[in-house]
Amino acid sequence: MDDQIELRLKQCTKLPSLPSVALQLVEAAGKPDLDPDEVISILAKDPALAAKVIRVANSPLYGQLSKTQNLNQAIIKLGLHSVITLSLSFSITHGLRSEGQPHLLQVWKRSLISSIVARLIGQRHNIPNKEDLFLAALLQDIGILALDAMDDGYQQIILEAKTHQDILRLERQTYKTDHTEVGHWLLQQWNFPDLLCNAIQFSDDLAITHETEEASQFLSIVALSGRIADIWLHPSIRQASFTAMIANQKLVKLTDSEFQGVIDYVTSQMESFGQLFNIQLFSSKQAEQIQETASEVLAIRNLTLLREIRKEREKVDILEEQNRYLEDQVKRDPLTGLYNRRYLEHIMAIEFSEAEANEWPLSLIFMDLDNFKDINDRYGHPTGDEVLKKVSRYMERQLRRSDVVARYGGEEFVILLPNTRQDDTERLALRLKDGIKQLSCISEHGDAIHVSTSVGVACHSSKHPFAGANALIAAADKMLYEAKNSGRDLIRVYQRPEPL
Question: Which Gene3D superfamilies match (predicted)?
Answer without folding.
Answer: 3.30.70.270, Hypothetical protein af1432 (1.10.3210.10)
